[in-house]
Write a structure and sequence with these properties.
By secondary structure, the protein is an alpha+beta fold. The strands form 8 sheets. Strands 12, 13, 17, 18, 19, 20, 21, 22, 23 and 24 form a 10-stranded mixed sheet that branches. The chain has a 5-stranded mixed sheet with strand order 5-9-8-7-6, covered by helices on one side. Strand 7 and strand 8 form a beta hairpin.
């Protein structure tokens, strides 16, 4: 059962010295969490749009200058696997976010969070997180009633899972005069910590709306003359070799060497033969033929390669976690070049990554460059990549061995699949679940049929869709069959928790069935494990599905653990469950090779076998431990 264990407090000792490289690595790895942390601590009076931009600005400015000491926080209280680099940047984010709530005073230099951020800056749009449900709205309103230090205390408890003594250390290091008072004030709010992971509080998953269009139109005439003058000056500075010339949006060349020049030569691009996949020993991206109506457009290919090597300041660059964004080491493979929706799109493969270049058809501005790791992709994992996103829809480029593509709603396993059609490898538009807001009422996936059989892929907001499987982790099966689709139906909406994490595949394994104590049926225990392309950072959820329920409930979750995986196919989790008669029970289950389960703490009980059911009270906390048939111990799944 998921519960917060308070470790004994240790005497503070000098912390390690955190240099810029270690802090930068922590910032890059945990950037979404740090931005969410800043967003929740910032004063609600700033408004959702300014809080989003300020949160990103504070997280991006959290790096130390040179070498800085993090000795104010003992290593054992650092969190995130006791990484001092993460502890340092988290402290910087908390300190600057708290500073944003202080009023401006004369003769006092304003802090970073007290003024509107200069960077990042978005013109003509208002950005704000997706709207959550009534519970999230109520929690946001309650957080607004707290002081800045109390909000920070609540968030550090709930989002970071820090015990109170560690929260006090962080608040004291951040400059809070009375951390104990902040904790007492945070106690007034109910411990709805699971809601802090909601998209309502995610500044990295945003909606966009236009700003005041009438006011912008009034200012347009005044700006026209200045724009004309700037254009003339820019043309003078750009001649003879600047501007939107042959290299498009690329930055100026800064190095000359034969290998780099070969990688940027469109004439040296690798192109697989159209029939290479038929005789290849492996079905992977290396045997994809170049497709698209602009595969011979040398000017477009040259621009795409130049921007890849030297993206200019106007180019929007994105990458999945753990993916390098540097230029190609040698001539990459061309997968696609053509017009898709309102853009010209080029897809490259360099053996480890997919690189997608896109530019508007009617403008030289607004180029985008996206990267995703695909090393080792073969078969189902190499059968499709995202080609375009437009108006909430996504189009895929499919492998040459794919014969049919269809759209299917995971929440409706018994409904038929809708044919998308394939033209020159490109599918028709599929409504992406990434864009949906509010309640999860559908989750559309891509179903492909071809040489390796039929399989299901889920769009998680990145170039490479995630493969969905079912069954024991050491022998997963495709989720495309009737049994696999029914198994995924109550779990589909939980895929939202692993969006934009570089996920390679997600397996769902029903590891136990448990008769309910009130004889109303049998509940299912399922664990889902999301594996990443980079190998680390897998996310595991233990979910509890009662008979007749549309959705499964998340009972426990963890990250960077071997549980529920091919190397350690064992899992133990518990949940508090209320019967129809109003009686509360602690229910727990392990895999079938679990010999016994013990509960301690707020609930004291034990059972022989892999199931435990005992009466308890609402809100009870318990620590679960199990023993396997071979005598080894198994810990309950919990957030790390």
């Amino acid at each position: 059962m998921q519960s917060q264990h308070v470790a004994p407090r240790h005497k503070s000792s000098p912390g390690p010295v955190v240099d810029a490289e270690r802090a930068e690595a922590a910032l890059v790895e945990h950037y979404p969490r740090l931005v969410r942390l800043a967003y929740l601590v910032l004063p609600p009076g700033l408004g959702r749009g300014r809080r989003v931009l300020t949160a990103h600005a504070l997280a991006q400015r959290a790096l130390p200058r040179g070498r800085s000491s993090a000795s104010v926080i003992p290593v054992q209280s650092a969190g995130r696997d006791s990484d001092p680099g993460y502890a340092f940047v988290r402290l910087q984010v908390i300190r600057t976010a708290l500073g944003a709530g202080r009023p401006l005073r004369r003769r006092t230099r304003p802090g970073r969070g007290q003024l509107p951020p200069l960077i990042p800056l978005v013109w003509g749009l208002r950005l704000f997180p997706h709207t959550g449900g009534a519970d999230e709205l109520a929690l946001d309103q309650k957080l607004a009633t707290l002081s800045g230090p109390a909000r920070a205390a609540y968030v550090l408890r709930g989002l970071e899972r820090l015990p109170d003594h560690a929260v006090r250390d962080v608040l004291k290091a951040a400059g809070v005069a009375d951390p104990i008072a902040a904790l007492r004030q945070a106690d007034r709010l109910p411990a709805q910590y699971a809601l802090l992971d909601s998209p309502e509080f995610d500044p990295c998953s945003l909606q966009a709306r236009p700003t005041d269009l009438k006011r912008r139109r009034q200012h347009a005439k005044a700006a026209l003359a200045a724009a004309a003058a700037l254009a003339v000056c820019g043309a003078l500075f750009a001649l003879p070799g600047g501007g939107w010339g042959p290299d498009g949006a690329a930055a100026p060349a800064y190095a000359q060497n034969p290998s780099a020049e070969a990688a940027l030569d469109p004439g040296r691009l690798t192109r697989a033969a159209p029939t290479a996949w038929r005789t290849s020993a492996r079905l992977d991206l290396s045997v994809w033929a170049a497709r698209g109506d602009r595969a011979g457009d040398t000017a477009l290919l040259r621009r795409a390669l130049a921007v890849w090597a030297r993206p200019g300041g106007s180019v929007r660059v994105s990458a999945t976690p753990g993916t390098a964004t540097g230029g190609p080491a040698g001539p990459p493979q061309l997968l696609y070049a053509g017009d898709v929706d309102n853009a010209r799109v080029v897809l490259f493969h360099d053996g480890l990554r997919i690189a997608r270049y896109a530019e508007p058809k009617d403008s030289a501005a607004g180029a985008a460059l996206d990267f995703a790791r695909v090393d080792g992709a073969a078969g189902a994992e190499a059968s499709a990549v995202v080609l375009s996103r437009s108006d909430g829809n996504v189009r895929y480029l499919t492998a040459p061995w794919v014969k049919a593509a269809a759209e299917r709603d995971l929440l409706k396993p018994d409904a038929g699949a809708m044919d998308l059609g394939i033209t020159d490898g490109v599918t028709g538009p599929l409504a992406s679940p990434v864009q949906q807001t509010g309640a999860c009422t559908s989750w559309n996936v891509l179903q492909l049929t071809g040489e390796p059989g039929t399989h299901v892929l889920a769009d998680l907001g990145e170039l490479a869709p995630a493969r969905l499987t079912t069954g024991r982790p050491d022998a997963p099966q495709e989720a495309s069959g009737a049994a696999g689709l029914r198994a995924w139906a109550p779990l589909a909406c939980s895929l939202a928790s692993v969006r934009a994490q570089g996920v390679r595949s997600v397996n769902a394994w029903q590891y136990a069935e448990q008769p309910l104590p009130d004889a109303t049926g049998t509940a299912a225990w399922v664990c889902t494990r999301a594996e990443t392309w980079r190998g680390d950072g897998p996310r595991v959820l233990a979910q509890f599905h009662t008979p007749g329920g549309k959705y499964a409930a998340v009972a426990a979750k963890a990250e960077n653990v071997p549980a529920c995986g091919a190397r350690d196919p064992h899992v133990l989790a518990g949940v508090l469950w209320k019967s129809e008669a109003g009686t509360w029970y602690l229910l727990a289950a392990g895999g079938r090779d679990t010999a016994s389960i013990n509960a301690t703490g707020g609930v004291s009980a034990s059972s022989q076998g892999h199931l435990l059911a005992v009466r308890t009270r609402q809100g009870a906390q318990a620590d679960l431990k199990g023993k396997l048939d071979d005598g080894r111990s198994v810990e309950a799944l919990r957030q790390k």
